[in-house]
Amino acid sequence: MIIRLCSIIAAVFVLCSCAGGAGLRTQVVQPQEVKGSFTLILYGARYSDDIQTLAILDLEGDGYVFKVFAPDFDYKLKKGVPAKEVLAEAVQFVSFHRSFERSRISRIMDPQGGTIGYEVRPLYRIIDFPYSDVLDVHYGLAGGEVTVRIRLIPEVEFQREERPRPLFRGRR
Length: 172
Prior knowledge:
The strands form two sheets. Strands 2-7-8-4-3-6 form a six-stranded antiparallel β-sheet, covered by helices on one side. A four-stranded mixed β-sheet has the order 1-9-10-5. The protein has one domain. The protein contains three helices and ten strands. Strand 9 (135-142) and strand 10 form a beta hairpin. The chain is of the alpha+beta class. 22% of the residues lie in helices and 39% in strands.
């Protein structure tokens, strides 16, 4: 009975780890390296204190499609945006938070090392958060689809859960 239970638990872990597809790598680049036409994916910025914000630049015509693992109302899409315009819009989008310090641009690479897109992520002031980079972003590839999972790193998530919540002061 115990062996059977351990086998089932091991199988569940294996199946869950493969659900997002093969992981893709990213590499920091300079803004002038961003070229082409893109579908801009703007994730987050749902409320004034939302630090879980990211811009993804999906390179059009490369055979890959990005799918954000989140409800449709958590992100916006804009197709056919040229490189210069997409970069300006992405940086403006991720810089809205009061703790924003600077942005970082990284290219997203397929398994052969080819560029399939870019991400623009906010880096925050270290005085406000334990780390400048608060995001844990995973790009999984299955077929021609890149699944994007975005969450806060555990230390930041814990810090934000520990903050006192405002009391309800209105009528019920």
